Amino acid sequence: MSVHPVTGNVQSKLFLSMLGAFAECERAQISERIKATKQRQIGVAPFGRVYDDAKRLVPVPEQQAVIRRIRRLGAKGLSPHKMAATYASGVNTCPM
After folding, report:
1. Which site in 40, 56, 63, 92 is 20 to 30 Å from 30, CA atoms measured?
2. What is the reported pTM?
3. Same domain for 72 and 56?
4. pLDDT value, residue 4
């Protein structure tokens, strides 16, 4: 009967178990840091959306209509400058 060089004795098994525990701990710490960073990054919602109580982005119908209009005008070949100058809609575009 041959003994495996890495897992063949008690010390090797203990060492591998400790390495596994350290790896699991490191993975959990990385996960916590990523979640904390994402939580801090939630700031001002993009135009056309707001955050609800559960911090999910939900559409704002009036602003979504402006976005659709901008896309239609862009598809017709108007530049952003011409869109702003020619088609002032009176809609508040400030998300705050």
Report:
1. 56
2. 0.47
3. yes
4. 59
